[in-house]
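Raw record, unedited: Epoxyqueuosine reductase
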Amino acid sequence: MKLEKNALLIKQKAKKFGFQSCGISKADFLEEDALPLENWLKNNYHGEMQYMENYFDKRLDPRLLVEGAKSVISLAYNYFPEQEISSLDNYKISKYAYGKDYHEVIKDILKDMVRELQEEIGDFSFRIFVDSAPVLERSWARKSGIGWVGKNANLITKQSGSFYFLAEIICDFELETDFATSDHCGTCTKCIDACPTDAIVNDKIIDGSKCISYATIELKNEIPESFKNKMEDWMFGCDICQDVCPWNRFSKPHNQPKFNPNLSLQNFKKNDWQELSQDLFSEIFQKSPIKRAKFSGLKRNIEFLES
């Protein structure tokens, strides 16, 4: 009864702090993910993301990340914008990067949430993860019933599609666990058909080295010629496989002011981006996910689109 009561309290807190979903799994070895992850790496689908080869065991077992871990609390935070940035005479930026860096925004929210939880249910050991460290976020979110993994490898929910961030609290607190939900992609292949670079090689399997998001963010070397005339003006990231997903017609605008685009993003046109300086880049993107690409990376992306 206590496990159930505490799990309910955590979900109520998650809602209070702005999370759209919260689910709980037992901190255990992700046996069904081991072989798929191994094959994905063997096929070099991670491209030049060498860090994906590290900490293989930790990716599959949260007890190696948090000593004495008993529960993985998975959370989803909406980032769907009220209005998209105009693509008219403009380069495109993935919606998740419109505002402030989500790593910091959500981490701060989670710290406050955990502080309140500890005041009410007592002290417990934990670690917070927001798209950081070797955690298979979608696997835990799927196990906890937040959604299912779609053919585009994004986590999808019936109620609100897939435009949300995932985060985890791995803790040594035993809680009542949730159940995985069923897959609702059916025979739909819209995401596979729409991908201009054929990055979706199979149901739920992405060749990261062919993905526009990878090419514009993760890739540090020159963009391969195979991307030529296929990037559809994406300067940072890519939302194509999400934009065409029928479930995203249920996406609702977020209510987090920190995720709203700054004025520069709203007002810039192609010519402004082409003339961007290092100083202006640093000023605009000081606390943005776009700083991950660096000034040199963003300039490289623009030059490739214009070549």
